[in-house]
Amino acid sequence: MRAIAFTLLFILAEAATASTTVTLLHFSDYHSHALPFYSEGKEQQGGIARTIGYLKRQKKQGALVFSGGDMMNKGAPAWSDKYGCAEWPWLNGVIDAMAFGNHDADYGFEAFTRCKSAVRYPILSANAHGFPPYAVLVARGKRIGVFALAGPDFPALVNGPELRFRDRIEAARSVVRMLRGKEHVDAVVMIGHEHAAADDELVRAVAGIDVIFGTHSHLKQELKRIEGTTTWFISPFQYMTYISRVEMTFGNDGLQSVTGSLVPVDSAMPVDRMVEKRVAKMRRDLERDPAYTDLFRPFATLAKPMSVSDLGNFTVGIMREAAGADAALSTASSFRGELPEGPLDLETLRAAMPYDNEIVVADLTAENYTRLLAYARGRDGDSAAYISESPAKKGATVRVATTDYLARVAPGYRDFFAGTNLSASGVRIRANVKSALTLRR
Question: Strands across the sheet with 64-67, in order?
């Protein structure tokens, strides 16, 4: 009898301390980078064949998989211009939910609707009209509530009268309340799509979010707890260079712990052979297409690699010279990649500078310019700025060259140019950089 009682007590004690771990995987800001590329000083990083191979294996082991959105990007790389959202259905049965990203509608809302109809996973946005606000997924017996948001800059970034947005904080509060109160989820997860600063603001305004997967800022950030909150944050950089992996461990009293790390997508990761063959054929067809052939012809040779910061500083320097300005600046978000040593083609430059911005010029008062500089130097991440100033003494007004995006769209920055006479130069910044690099060959 004592043995039976002891066994019964042991079983009850074990049940009381039993835990369940759910694995969450997340990538974001793929931007149609189907093939491996040069990143962080290394060749052969990323690639959708590796990513899908890894995700399929993890899916079989019970992981939940999410995309943070921005699955394509009009104008760069050429892949999405030719193939649109061809890869989206490849992820059917792999992705559990996707966030609606601003670039997902780059080719218009009608094209996006066709893309959406080709996938079986839900595309979420709690504050964008016409999207499901959240999804509830079950893994290892635990209910995981997942939602997404359109960032505060979406109205300026996304074209189309069909797309309307409501206040994201209000929407998030409503969703979390629904997930906690009606759906009775074990955890709440936000999968995108807004800048890191907006994520920080969100968790300070809305209680009850356990994990935020970073997107939109293209930030590389290992798992951390957001200071002063109980919310965890991790961000996988860009273009499938990394996958965020998070383990949520639950006990009888709910969520016990959150651990995780960034998983590099590189040559050590086995590929999905079928996807690899498909991508290779599509790449050959792209390079042979007369509409795109010129993009793959070298126009310059770099003696050494050019880092993102080197490219940013080089660009604002030639912007200032091209405009005959006293100063030039551009947000860090305009520069997304490095340039490798050796032959350089336009497609590689476009990948590093994917947005075809124009140089605009404005005369600012010295006081307004000083405040603009102080603001720019106080930013970090995507909203930081590269700045070039002439050594010549400035007068009562300062002639400033910048991008049409910074002067007209970028939150915070555009306020300094409101009411000024913005002059369009007709010069595209990427073409200006190409010419300057060609002269250096």
Answer: 123-124, 97-99, 64-67, 20-27, 242-251, 254-264
Sequence-ordered list of residues with C-beta below 8 angstroms from that of 319, at least 6 positions apart, any chain: 325, 328, 330, 359, 388, 401, 402, 429, 432
Do 124 and 217 sit in the same domain of this protein? yes
DSSP string, 110-157: HHHHHHHHT-SS-EE-TTBTTS--EEEEEETTEEEEEE----TTHHHH
Q: 252: which 2 tokens?
A: 């009888």
Q: How far apart are the first and last CA of the chain?
A: 89
Report strand pairing: 64-67 vs 97-99: parallel
Same domain, residue pair 172 and 131: yes
Q: Give the Cα separation of 424 and 403 in Å (integer).
A: 10
Instruction: Give the whole-angstrom CA distance, residue 357 versus residue 426.
Output: 10
**Which residues does residue 423 pair with via DSSP β-bridges, in sequence order?**
361
Distance CA 397, CA 365 (A): 4
CATH at 332: 3.90.780.10
Query: Within a 13 Å sphere around the CA of 10, how many CA atoms are in the beta-carbon half?
Result: 6
Which pLDDT score is estimated for 161? Answer: 85
Determine phi and psi for 353, rounding to 5 degrees: -130, 80
- Per-residue confidence (pLDDT) for residue 392, from 0 to 100: 82
Per the structure block, which two tokens stand in for 211?
A: 């994990």
Specify whether 31 is located in the same domain as 96. yes
CB 49, CB 238: distance < 8 Å:
no
Domain span at residue 216 reads 20-282
Mean of all residue pLDDT scores within the chain: 95
Domain boundary among 250, 282, 314: 282
Strands (E), 226-340: 232-236, 242-251, 254-264, 298-302, 327-331
Mean pLDDT of 64-69: 98
pLDDT of 7 over the 90 cut: no
Residue pair 60/267 in contact by the 8 Å Cβ criterion: no
DSSP bridge partners of 190:
147, 212
Query: What integer pLDDT is reported at residue 394 of this predicted model?
Result: 74
Q: How far apart are CA 15 and CA 383, in angstroms?
A: 50
